[in-house]
Design brief:
Elements: E1 3-7, H1 11-20, E2 25-30, H2 33-41, E3 45-48, E4 71-74, H3 85-99, E5 105-111, E6 121-122, H4 133-141, E7 145-150, E8 152-154, E9 174-176, H5 177-189, E10 196-199, H6 207-214, E11 229-230, H7 233-239
Parallel strand pairs: 1-2, 1-4, 2-3, 4-5, 5-7, 6-11, 7-10, 8-9
Helix pairs in contact: 1-5, 3-4
């Protein structure tokens, strides 16, 4: 059975672990002692680790379990939106000290936020990874790194109707967490390396249509959907992946 490490056991990390736990041996990092204790009690080998955006006086010790891992999934933010480039460099240096010279399969959970808010259909070629500091820095260190640019994370308690939303006639670029797990599982099976994929549900309704569906409000209005659409067609074509949740209007069902 393959061994998988998840760096960052937050909302997404928890759901990835739940989906992958039956097929793989799991280890994870978390930031609190209580959560680490809970995970260890549930059979997930957990350690406390954080990756600050400043230079440490002494580098982080390497994760002991890393030498036995086949796959590493990084869910902590490594984007310029979370910190400036110099701070981002420090965070990635701290992360690299923790995982060392890992040679196994790797995944970085990036974001479709790298694409500008303009009305256009975006593919991966529009913003190559060399233009995104965090993606570029990590790929330079780990050439085998797969980068998944995730749309808005949805499913379970995350529903668009619960948020303050503007531009209701603009398209959503959402992804159900179950499909993220499914795509990672498929890439593990195919031993995929060094790929950059947009990960969004293939249907892009307007925000108002998603909210009405979640509120069980009939919506027969035909409207022009505006705004950007981030396309996952490259992923579908290369992996032959079939989405479990292709339409964000049914994520809540």
């Amino acid at each position: 059975m393959k061994k998988i490490g998840i760096i960052g056991y937050g909302w997404l990390g928890e759901r990835l672990a739940s989906s992958l736990s039956g097929k793989y041996n799991l280890s994870a990092t978390t930031t609190t002692e209580n959560k680490a204790e809970d995970l260890n009690n549930r059979g997930i080998n957990a350690v406390i680790a954080s990756f600050p955006d400043y230079q440490l006086t002494e580098p982080l010790s390497q994760w002991q379990e890393i030498k036995n891992m086949d796959v590493l999934i990084i869910t902590i933010p490594v984007s310029e939106k979370s910190c400036c480039v110099s701070s981002l460099y420090n965070r990635i240096q701290n992360l690299s000290a923790f995982i060392g010279d890992f040679k196994g399969q790797m995944f970085l959970m990036s974001s479709t936020g790298v694409y500008p808010d303009v009305s256009k259909d975006f593919t991966e070629e529009d913003i190559p990874l060399v233009s995104v500091s965090g993606e570029r820095m990590l790929r330079n260190k780990y050439p085998q790194l797969n980068i998944l640019r995730l749309g808005g994370l949805m499913g379970d308690n995350r529903l668009l109707k619960n948020y303050n939303v503007s531009n209701l006639d603009h398209a959503v670029n959402h992804i159900h967490y179950a499909d993220i797990s499914g795509i990672i599982s498929e890439m593990i099976e195919q031993k995929t390396e060094s790929k950059l994929y947009n990960v969004t549900a293939p249907i892009h309704p307007a925000k108002s249509q998603v909210i009405n569906a979640q509120k069980n409000i009939a919506d027969d209005e035909v409207l022009e959907v505006k705004g950007k659409k981030v396309l996952s067609s490259k992923l579908v074509s290369e992996l032959d992946y079939v989405f479990q949740h292709p339409d964000p209007r049914t994520f809540h069902l």
